[in-house]
Amino acid sequence: MAGIYKLYVVGGAGGYMGSDGVSPVEFMILVGVGSRMWMEPSYHNRALTPLGNVRTIIPEGPTSPDAVLDACLAFAPEYFAACPSMAAVRAEVGTREQLDFDGGAQRVAPSWRALREEARDEFARIGLWEAELTALTRK
Q: How many CA atoms lie within 13 A of 52 on its CB side?
């Protein structure tokens, strides 16, 4: 069995200083686990499109510090259009539907490591929230 256990919400801070939560929600990154951990997008802003045909990524590991950055690069490349390596990565990824970082970023695309570094400043400006999912108990 595999299931979603965590999610990240990407969007804006609603209300005064974010007091109204996330608004607007641009997209969510669903984090699933089975025999391996994976991440997949759920879009709310229909203008966002993934890199190529990417529907899932497999991070380097469950504690990879770059997992969410990699997910944002793969699922919302529009946020990083100004990065010089984006065009090369787009060509290297082509029409793949899955990016597997378990063997390292170089295995995914030779230019990915450079893109990660170029994207860090923009990534730091993205509104990002994390939620661990727990079952709701009712009486």
A: 22
